[in-house]
Amino acid sequence: MKISPRSSAPGAVVAKIGRYTFLSVLLGFFALPMLWLASAPFNAHPTLNGSISSFTLHNFSVLLKDPYALPSLWNSLLLAGGTALLTVGFAAAAAYALSRVRVPGRDGILYALLLLSSIVTGTAAMVPLFQLAFKLHLIDSRLGVILVFTGGLLPAAIFILKDFTDNTPKSYEESARVFGASPFQIIRHIVLPMIRPGLATVTVWAVVNVWGNFLIPYILVRNPDKYPASVVLYTFYTEGGQPNLALISAFSLLYSIPVIVLYLFVSHRYGFRFHGGIKR
Amino acid sequence: MAQIRTVDLTKTFADASGGVTALDSLNLTVQDGEFFALLGPSGCGKTTLLRTLAGLETPTGGAVHIGDADVTRTAPGKRGVAMVFQDYALFPHMTVTENIAYPLRVRGVSKAKQHEAVLAAASELGLTGTETTVGLLDRRPGALSGGQQQRVALARATAANPAVFLFDEPLSNLDARLRLEARTFLKRLQRELATTTVFVTHDQAEALALADRIAVMQSGRIRQLGTPREVYRRPANTFVASFIGSTPMNLLEGTVRDRRVLVADSEIALPEGTAGAVADGTAVVLGARPEYFRVSPDPLPGAFGGTVAVAENLGSSLLLTLDVAGTAVQAVVGEEDEPEPGAMLWALPRQDRTLLYVDGELVG
Amino acid sequence: MARTASPAAAEDPAGLGRARAAGIAAPALLVVLAFLVFPALWTLYLGTTNYRLTGHAARHPRSVGVDNYTTVVKDPAFHHSLWLTFEYVIGSAVLGQALLGFVIAWLLRDAGGRVKRVIEALVLLAWILPSSVVAFLWSALLDRDQGTFNALLHTQGTAWIVEHPMTVIIIFNIWRGTAFSMLLYSAALTGVPPTQLATARMFGANQWQQLRDVVFPHIRGHILTNLLLISLWTFNDFTPYQITGGADSRSQILPVYIYQTALFDGQMGLGAAIALLMLVINLVVALVYLRLLRDRRLERVA
Ligand SMILES: Nc1ncnc2c1ncn2[C@@H]1O[C@H](COP(=O)(O)OP(=O)(O)OP(=O)(O)O)[C@@H](O)[C@H]1O
Ligand SMILES: [Mg+2]
Predict the structure, then answer these.
(1) Residue B220: nearest ligand to its CA?
(2) Which fold has domain B247-362?
(3) pTM for this entry
(4) Judging by DSSP bridges, how do beta strands B213-218 and B35-39 pair with one another?
(5) Most buried among B349, B359, C202, C239, using CB within 10 Å?
(6) Residue B133, burial from CB neighbour count under 10 angstroms (0-12, 13-18, 19+)
(7) Average pLDDT over residues B72-101
(8) Strands (DSSP E) along B55-141, which ranges?
């Protein structure tokens, strides 16, 4: 039984109506901008409003013919994959070392890193980052973009993975060690499998971050052949003349799909939740 | 198969208040094939000793020998030991088979040989299915009961085919009934394999039941080393006396006068073989196990006379606490001898079972 | 399986050793050093030069001392940008996202089923879609001639982005970022003991009284965490650039202003000087936040 003494009062009815009105408005507010993304790609004559006149898949063939659209998705994939790989690999190694071997001032170092990564954002550091890439001849280099991303993501990644390692009992590693496993065997056979949820979390987080990022490649990549999708899409709707809505709509959808799929995967597998207010 | 020997083994942990000495110059020899128990209260250094033998802790001083080799600086994996942790440390992401095979896998043993060894170890420990039970080999540790996990951990240790087994309270995570079964099982297994075994426990009954010899530890030192019978019959000091025995020994302060001990307004005969060893007037502690009393409603010469304060039922017997001139004396009587509360009783300790301690150490 | 923390659990259970530990930690630390620590320090130096993107000063930058800083501090355009940024952070993050996020979390806290799933999914989608996509979606929505928004309100001919750029980016950012607050507050609300709420209801407390007396005391820490984080992120948000194009000074929040100054106009030294001020503001917010985090950790340990 629910304890709500006033549930039958007229005030409660008003409250209920108010609540549903509010939720409807909310639904509209969040859904409205996205309608276009769902409808325009399949509209034979796409306009800026979301109404469908006649269904077509022609817009996607426009996409195939564009010299920049598909390669840019490949570029995005390279950047996201490369960054995720470097971030997870480097962070896991560092997190393990910091979790298991006593280094003087370890906690201080970690907090300093976390502090740095939250203040030295791409926006605040765009000037020196551009300079640095310029001096190191990393303008137009995918590696350069990947390294800049990795540097920004690493501190938080180390923090998350260290949390996972800290929560793993040491007796597993000790047990393997007594059976004669070498340190690297222990890491491969025991530690990595045990922190797999953490590795997955960091991977998804890094991929989503890089996939959607606009500023870093926008300032570090000049050659249109190396533009990732974020920059190409931006140029599609800002370059002069009438924007090609068929191209933009189809491309926006294609570019968004991986993120949507990842979201569905994560929410299905783990539930999209925070635990105890800490982002996992 | 190997003997274990420690020489002046010392381990100090640094901490804020200067350091904890967990092992204090231990000299200890465990014979080849022996089942050896380390017994002591919490924090006395049992786990530390075991981990130092395994090589997981580096001693601050002294040496460890296993077999003929000095292994003090040898890596844990190269000592030929297998350890079973209190929480078993079964790898949760591996099946039972993979867990048992792990020691062989890191040695690079062929898959076929691994399989063979897993089957041997698993059937030895009853993990393979029979007509009436399901095999556990394909399960993960999370899907096993505590007792099953314990056997998998033992199987994994056996599969390693070590010279020495090190067990850290392997039974303490089991419930009381399962613990008795596992105890019997463990003893049989050790007898069959005849592998030198060091077994840590804080349960004196477990140590008495299992071990060939027991070392009773306190604050990083060994207070007594002997067979279960020796440790139980003749505890070397009042610490061991109070620690061993499921009903604690009566330890009563008194003075010696004229071949008797004056204690709690009673005059008790000196234990056998101590007459003349102690001068008159010496302050002593008289030790008498509750099990070794003759209790009678009629006055007995040389007995404690007191009223029944508490009677506790132990199943087949009763533990009485008598108030003897303000001192509590405990005695065990048969189940049919239940007295009225407050009744006056006389309890006469068996002279061949009483013990005499001077300055905490056993006399005679 | 019962797990008791053994006091004897030593450091370094895998026997890695200091040297190897340092070895495997090194790549991460080096990358962070090169691409995070160094740029921050370099900003300090760049801000004292007349560095330009092109021309003579690009090849031979000269030290100009604190000139850049005095220029910036006296520049009305900078003041304006700072004020806009303040409006943006307060309006879209502190008032917008935090409030809306809490209201959604509260209304949906024990709603089940489809309504909850759909709303949560939409709010989350707005958060995780690539910024280029959502920026275009909003440009399309608010388009002067064909936009759905004008069609709905019968206000054809209103160029919202041109006429009310600040309002647009504030509303946009509420739409974009509410998800984080919603998630955080939902998690926080699950920590409020239902028995306490039931007790309050039993005594006849209305919604507001329940919130004030039972809920807020429980989630005070979460509110603070949330406000600090979303303020920091919003303060560093570059997405409005993709909607407004950056040239309109009426909507040049600080990130856009730095981009325009340093990379568009090419005055790198001046841009670095502004960036340094931004770093300092970030530092202050982050320090407060970490302080809080550490206190909460200690509290949990105690
Ligand atoms: N890594 C460590 N750092 C500091 N002190 C330690 C460490 N390991 C053990 N000690 C201390 O050494 C002493 C012995 O600990 P040990 O774990 O060996 O006791 P134990 O006999 O196994 O106790 P228990 O029955 O509770 O398991 C204790 O005082 C303990 O606090
Ligand atoms: Mg222990």
Answers:
(1) 1
(2) OB fold (Dihydrolipoamide Acetyltransferase, E2P) (2.40.50)
(3) 0.86
(4) parallel
(5) B349
(6) exposed
(7) 93
(8) 61-66, 69-70, 81-84
> Which pLDDT value is given to residue A55?
79
ipTM reported for the complex, 2 dp = 0.87
CA distance A200 to A193: 11
Q: From the CA of C31, how many Å to the nearest CA of chain A?
A: 5
Contact A172 B89 (CB under 8 A): yes
What are the phi and psi torsion angles at B216 (to 5°)?
-95, 120
Name the residue of B13, B50, B53, B85 to mutate for ligand 1: max ligand atoms within 8 A of Cβ.
B13
Query: Per the CB < 8 Å rule, is C2 touching B56?
Result: no
In which region does residue B276 sit, left (phi positive, over 0), alpha (psi from -120 to 50) or beta (all else)? left
Q: Which chains pack against B, by 3+ Cβ pairs within 8 A?
A: A, C
User: Which residues of chain C, if any, have pLDDT below 70?
Assistant: 1-10, 297-302
B4-242, superfamily in CATH?
A: P-loop containing nucleotide triphosphate hydrolases (3.40.50.300)
* pLDDT at residue C5 in the model: 36
Please check whether residue B195 touches C, CB under 8 A: no
The Cα-based distances of B97 to A175, B128, B130, B159, C271 in angstroms read: 16, 10, 17, 11, 63
Scanning B164-284, the segments in alpha helix (DSSP H) are 176-193, 204-210, 228-233, 238-243
Return the pLDDT at B130.
Answer: 67
Residue C106 near residue C189, CB atoms below 8 Å: yes
Domains of chain C: 76-301 (1.10.3720.10)
State pLDDT tens for residues B158-184: 999 999 999 999 888 888 888 888 889
What ranges do the domains of chain A cover? Answer: 10-56, 62-269
Q: Are residues A179 and B89, on separate chains, in Cβ contact within 8 Å?
A: no
Give yes or no for residue B106 having a pLDDT over 60.
yes
The residue assigned the tokens 């024990």 is: C110
CATH 3.30.70.600 fits A62-269, yes or no: no
Structure tokens at A118: 């939250």
Task: List, for residues C73-83, the tens digit of each pLDDT value.
Answer: 899 999 999 99
pLDDT value at residue C299: 67
Phi–psi pair at C235, nearest 5 degrees: -60, -30
What percentage of chain B reaches a pLDDT higher than 90? Answer: 72
